[in-house]
Amino acid sequence: MMTYHPKSDFIAVMMERGFLADCTDYQGLDEAILKGGQPGYIGFDATAKSLHVGSLIQIMMLRWLQKTGGKPITLMGGGTTKVGDPSFRADERPLLNPEAIDANIAGIKQVFSAYLTYGDGPSDGMMINNAEWLDDLNYLDFLRDIGRHFSINRMLSFESVKSRLDREQSLSFLEFNYMILQAYDFMELHRRYGCILQMGGSDQWGNIVNGIDLTRRVIDGEVYGLTSPLLTTSDGKKMGKSQSGAVWLNGDMLSPYEFWQFWRNTTDADVGRFLKLYTELPVDECDRMGALAGSEINAAKIKLANEITTLLHGAEAAATAEATAREVFEKGGVGDDLPTLTLSADDLGDGISIVQLIVRSGLAGSGKEAKRLIAENGARMDDQPLTNAGLMIDAGALSSPIKLSAGKKRHALVQLG
């Protein structure tokens, strides 16, 4: 990969910013993209009401495709979500009904408009639902016309399937069909919209290659695949998870402040890489900031958090989050934008335990975790150490809001509604 010198801006950006894990044909794709306005797609299955941070690398790839003159297609998996992608999973996904899938798609769509411009122009994005062609497939026709092009021997050799079988974990026939449906999606997008490129994480390599083969065999179309690395943080954790759960992109599922905080808490070793992947700052500037040390790296982390939060939630939300963080951390204040738990008098009753408050405010995932936090001197109330896990909080204690803290960086307010 590193010896190839790209001619197109898009491939150059993918390579120099760290988006590129592999490509089915560097030169062929590079030359096709040079024609301008070429459609490329990424599929997003509707398994939740919001995408999380793990999907942000894919969204940024579509954004760069558009910024360099290509035409991004966001493919909503209204059809494929009914089957579930088995790639590198240990178990089968729970099946969702059509109403739940439609509700999830409505939630997911909100994020894309922050990153992509949709419309009828040559490089305007398109949002398409694969239920458009998958819902009405005739099973026998599909088996005869499409299924005959797939070799079971070859499908079993793909790493995503092999790893599941090697662990002797069940792979249902339903899930096994997923890669055929994804291949069919690529062919249909090429046939209907002239799409020449499918992108995805490197776990999608087998599915993408299947789509390229099928498109060539059935309609003699020339299409390409490009994958991004599967991102983990420098300490080996999967992107998209934080101590308190998934880092959702929708503001109603995770506040802009908490989103900002996630990036502010980036490990030093990841700063330069994340600046290149998740912001549009020049590469040399990203490298310069990533090489900083000591207190200077904190300024780079604030820049990282501000840039990423601005792209998703807007400049005002980023500025508010930074001001709140400064108020909380530097001045020991409360801050207006902290995650807030509002209790009613009924919730409170005769009193509520501090352990319950820590869990309900999102600072711990369970009562056990909250008790451990207190036992290890990691919990504070109004900036004072919490030592008594049996402490009860009544209406009198909540006459003014209480600030709870887990460690130095995570805070929440509790107030009476």
Structural features, described:
Helix 10 (178-193) crosses helix 11 (205-219), helix 13 (271-278) runs parallel beside helix 15 and helix 18 packs across helix 19. The protein is α/β, with parallel strands linked by helices and 417 residues long. The chain folds into three domains: 9-228, HUPs (Rossmann fold, 3-Layer(aba) Sandwich), CATH 3.40.50.620; 255-329, Tyrosyl-Transfer RNA Synthetase; 340-416, RNA-binding S4 domain (Structural Genomics Hypothetical 15.5 Kd Protein In mrcA-pckA Intergenic Region, Chain A, Roll). The mean pLDDT is 87. The protein is built from 19 helices and 15 strands. The strands form four sheets. A six-stranded mixed beta sheet has the order 1-6-5-2-3-4, with helices on both faces. A five-stranded mixed beta sheet has the order 9-15-14-11-12.
Tags for this entry?
alpha/beta, Tyrosyl-Transfer RNA Synthetase, Structural Genomics Hypothetical 15.5 Kd Protein In mrcA-pckA Intergenic Region, Chain A, 3 domains, five-stranded mixed sheet, 19 helices
Sum this structure up briefly.
With 417 residues, the protein is an alpha/beta fold.
- Which CATH top level class of the largest domain fits? Alpha Beta
Q: What coarse outline follows from CA principal-axis ratios?
A: globular
Overall mean pLDDT stands at 87
Distance between the termini: 58 Å
Main sheet makeup: 6 strands, mixed
The CATH level-2 architecture of the largest domain is identified as 3-Layer(aba) Sandwich
Instruction: State the secondary-structure class.
Output: alpha/beta
Going by CATH, what is the homologous superfamily of the largest domain?
A: HUPs
Neighbour order of strands in the largest sheet: 1-6-5-2-3-4
Helical content stands at: 40-55%
